[in-house]
Each structure stands twice: as structure tokens, then as C-alpha cells.
Protein 1
Amino acid sequence: MGTATVKWIGGKQFVGIDSTCHSVVLSTPDEGIGIKPSELLLIAVASCSAVDVVEILTKKRMPLDFMEISASGEQDQDPPWTFRKIKLHFRLAGKNLTEKAAAQAIELSEEKYCSVAATVRATAEITTHFEVLDPIQFG
């Protein structure tokens, strides 16, 4: 079972701490020192998928030299500003990486392994796009 703690540190600032004592600073946009909680959800979807994609491609003997995922979301105009669409754009590079392998790894993550995506999918449509880059730039 996952656990986390959020501590208020003053004003509109908080620290989130996971079960292994890693932390992240959160705040409202006007505080300007931490991540917006709603954008932390986008980071969670992208990073959950990132872990899966790295593991899947490593098992396929196609290790990555580079990966970056841009996440964007469309929210309702009124409170509670529910996310309705989340878009993930993967940029990947690896010496032996093929477009087919990248597509399969991303699909497996989104459809089978990513717990965050599985949870969010109940209210938000998640779409993914990717591009395989020349690994020479990152080697």
C-alpha cells in the first residue's frame, strides 16, 4: 500500500513526503516556490509511464540514451477544475530503438502497467504521441 504525508510549512506552501522519505515542495502559483498540486498530477502520470517505458525497453535490449515526456492537461473551467484530457508527448533516443518498440512500450505502460494512468483514466482521456530521435545527439 502506498503512503504519503503532506505538511503545511506556512502560507500556501506544503511539503509532500513519500513512504521512502523523498520530498517535493508544493504551493499555489502566487507563492511561486513549489509545484502546483494539479500539475503534480501531470508529473505523476508522465513519470509513472516513464518508469514503465524504461523497464520495458531495457528488457527488450533497447536501452535508452534519452527520454523526455511533456505532459499537458485540459481542465474544466469551474471548480473542482477536473482534468478531462491529458496529453503525453514522448521524445526518446537509443542506439537500437525502433519506432515499433517505442510504440509498444508506451502502449503497454498506458494500457497495462501505469497505476496513475489507470486511476486518472476514469475522468480524463489520456492520449500519447512519440518521436524517436537520432541517438547520436545523446550518446
Protein 2
Amino acid sequence: MSPATPAPAVENLILNISQEIQVHAPLDVTFAALLEQLGPAGDTPEGKPMPMKLEAWPGGRWYRDLGDGNGHFWGNVQAIKRPTLLEISGPLFMSFAVISNIQYRLSEIPGGTLIAFHHFALGAIPDDYRQNIGTGWTHIINNVRTRAEALRGK
């Protein structure tokens, strides 16, 4: 029997990311763009399609659909209050002992919408994941802005 590995410090088990972005589009258009981006319009920062499904109701699943019953479970909708809140809890893209909570809070501001994003995770998150997590979230939120601003006049 090998000796036990010392437990990591608590701060090494926590991930906490916050981002805000202003969108020049109405609240309802921005929320619709968010659902579209997290679902069928999802892609990677490299521009590759990311076939995601988002069941936009309490308890609904968010998962990567690879077809033929294959895929990756990312989480469940914990709360949805159209058009101001989408909250999802689950492992997200991490196949580790991790639980995450992400929140998109939308509020009306002069000239459009403010999206406040927060990702809190607890668990065994490898360093290489920690270093790149913000890139993906920034990509998603920027695509939401681009999509909403393109739709605002339609």
C-alpha cells in the first residue's frame, strides 16, 4: 500500500471566474441569442462546430450531442427566468471530480443589455484546464453579443 497523497490546499480546489459585457441589443433579443449560442449555434474558439443541446427549462439538460446516443453531459438548468437569468449546474466540460455553477445574469442598461457571467467550480481541476477556461467563456459571451447585435434590427 502506498502512502496517501497530501490533500491540496482549499484554494487549489476552487475556480472563480467573472466577466461582464455590454450588448447593444434589447434584453429579450440578447437572451434569445444566449440560448442559441449555448445550443445549436455553439462553436469552439477555433471556429469548429460544437453540437450542443440546451433544454431551456428548470431541470433541462445541457449536453454535447455527438449523435447515435453519444455525447457528454455538461449540466442541468438550475434556474431560468426569461429574459434575465440562466443558471446551470454540473461538471460542464470536465471529466473530473468537479461540480460547477454558471450564471448568466442579464439586465437592461441604457442602450442595451449588460450580461454578467459567473463560473464557480469546486473540485480537482487540472492546471491546464484552469489556464484555458476563461478563453472559452469569453468566446461564448462575445458570440452572444455579435449575434444579438445582428438580430436587434430584425
